[in-house]
Fold:
Amino acid sequence: MRAIDVHVHPMNPAYVEASAPFMPAAQRMFKGKFAARPDTQIAEDFRRDDALAIPIAWDAEHGAAGGRYSNEDLAALTRDYPDVFLPGWAMVDPWRGRKGLEEIEHAIKHLGLMGVKYQPPVQGFSPNDKQFYPIWDLLQSLGAPVLIHCGTTAIGAGEPGGLGYKLGHARPIPNIDDVAADFPRLNIVAAHPGWPWTEELIAVAIHKGNVSIDISGWGPKYIPAALKHDMQRRLQDKVLFGSDYPGWSAGQCCDEWEMEGFKPGIVEKLFHQNAIRILKLEDAVARATGTKG
Structure:
C-alpha cells in the first residue's frame, strides 16, 4: 500500500446527478475530469495507484438545491469494493435538525461509515454558529471524526456571484478554531490547505491538538510555502494525504510529493502513517489489505 487517500469523490453517475447544480463550473475548472465513470473504473484507478480510498457522500439540499448521493449508497460502495474503499465520510445537510442528527447516528452506528464531511459554503452555514453545535456534540460523543471544508472552493468558481456560495463560512478562524475549542474531544480534519487563510489554518492546527489538515485539491507545487515548511516540522504528524479524486489521481499526487525532496520519514507520515493514527484505521486497513490475523 503506497498511500491512504482521505478525500475521494466517487464520481459515478449517481454522484454526478446529485451534484448537477454546480457540475458545469467544476467541469470547466477541472477540464472535464469530473465526468461520470462506473464504480469499477474508480476502484481500478485506486488499485493501479496502490492506494486505499476514503470516499465521500454528498448532501447539500438546503444550500445547493441539488440531490443526494446517500450515505446508504456510499456504504454499499465500500462493501462492494472492500480491497479499495475504507469506511467513508457520510454527509448530512446541517439544516436538517433533529432528523439530521438521527441520520448521522445511523450512518456511524448502522452503516459502518467512519465520520461525517461538511462543505460550509455550499451547505450555507458557519460551523461555529451555535445552532449547529448539537452536530458537533453528537459526533464527539460518538467518537467519530469530522471533515470540514476549509478555504476557497471550486464549486461555483467563475460563476456570477459564485452561485451565491460564501467563502467566509470556510475561514479557519473563527469557524474551525471555535468548534475545536468548544469540543476538545472532537477529531477535526480541515479539508484542503485553507487558502487564502492558510496561515490561519496552520495556527489552528498547531494550537488545537484535535485539528489536523488534509492537503487534497492542490498539487504540491501550488501548496502555499508556509504549509510545506510546517509539514516537515511542527505539523509533520498532523497532515493527511488526499487527492480530491477525480480532480487528481492518488498516483499523480504521490509522484509529485515524492519529488518535493522532503526529509526522510516525512513522506511516509503524509502518505499513510498519520491517517492510520489520527483516524484510527488500523483494523480497516488490515481488512482491506488482507493482513488482519
User: Anything to note?
Assistant: The beta strands are 3-8, 51-55, 58-59, 68-69, 89-91, 115-118, 146-149, 188-191, 211-214, 239-240. The chain has a mean pLDDT of 95.
